[in-house]
Write a structure and sequence with these properties.
With 280 residues, the protein is mainly alpha-helical. It is 47% helix and 6% strand. 25% of the residues are buried.
Length: 280
């Protein structure tokens, strides 16, 4: 029942050893963080709201499993507060919004720096550039621009357009029927070019389509849905209030507190973590 926070702490330690960063920022979804996107598309992340029991061998009911998850997240926060990391969480914002803002702010503030985004969510590939890299711990792949082109067939600047057409099952976002990972790069070859094409390029290409091209017609038929998907998945322009922006920047520049070894070890011993994660 300690799987969540022990896995997180183990992964965090591995990432720090791998990348040796000068600053570690951990962002969480805030309360009602998905609300703005659900206004655009009500079923957004609705696939995560079902009361399905994921671990029936461990838990007797959904409520018991959910309660355990919430307890583990609270415990994880206790651990993180003992570590020299910066936590960011804002009501009304998803972690995506905070990370997207930082992916612009840090390189602009420190042009010689490198920013690594670590997540299993490949939406962040749209933020990749010469100073921002994305690491997928599930695939164990470090994405730079050339790797994004190799894996997805499109430039990072156009990943949001690509996603608006193919959809995202993890967030319950539909794509255009009949258009998948391979199809989209054949229909819209210029998405691999190093410039943001936008939806105008998609519509112009569809209007100039060859005769009897059903997929191009289909994109135009569901144009409104494509535009909504684009808004939801676009991380280039996160919708963040000026107040939250100021606080994000303030927290970023705030001196990180040193490791609270005593506090960490108290938690570590209480949870018998030595059986799972050796302390070093």
């Amino acid at each position: 029942r300690r799987v969540l926070f022990r896995s997180f702490l183990r992964s965090l330690g591995s990432m720090i050893k791998l990348h040796n960063p000068t600053k570690v920022i951990i962002a969480f979804d805030g309360e009602k963080g998905s609300q703005a996107r659900k206004y655009l598309y009500r079923p957004y992340k609705a696939n995560r709201d079902g009361k399905k029991l994921n671990n029936p061998k461990v838990f007797r009911s959904y409520d018991e499993e959910r309660g355990s998850k919430n307890d583990q997240i609270t415990r994880l926060i206790d651990y993180l507060r003992c570590l020299p990391v910066t936590l960011m969480v804002y009501d009304g914002l998803e972690a995506d919004d905070v990370i997207a803002y930082l992916a612009k702010y840090i390189p602009n503030t420190y042009p010689d720096s490198f920013t690594y985004i670590v997540s299993s969510d490949e939406d962040y590939t749209q933020l990749v550039n010469e100073r921002v890299l994305f690491y997928s711990p599930t695939k164990k792949i470090l994405f730079n621009t050339s790797k994004v082109l190799e894996v997805f067939g499109v430039h990072p600047l156009n990943i949001n357009v690509y996603k608006s057409l193919v959809g995202d099952t993890s967030d319950n976002l539909p794509g255009v029927s009949g258009i998948g990972d391979k199809t989209v790069t054949k229909l819209f070859e210029d998405l691999k070019q190093p410039e943001a094409k936008g939806l105008s390029y998609i519509y112009e290409t569809c209007q100039e389509k060859p005769v009897n091209s059903v997929l191009y017609d289909r994109v135009l038929f569901v144009q409104k849905t494509v535009e909504i998907m684009y808004q939801i998945m676009d991380l280039h322009n996160p919708n963040i209030s000026e107040e939250d922006i100021q606080d994000i920047e303030r927290l970023y520049h705030r001196k990180v507190v040193p490791l609270d070894k005593s506090g960490f070890m108290t938690l570590y011993n209480e949870d018998r973590m030595a059986d799972i994660i050796p302390y070093t």
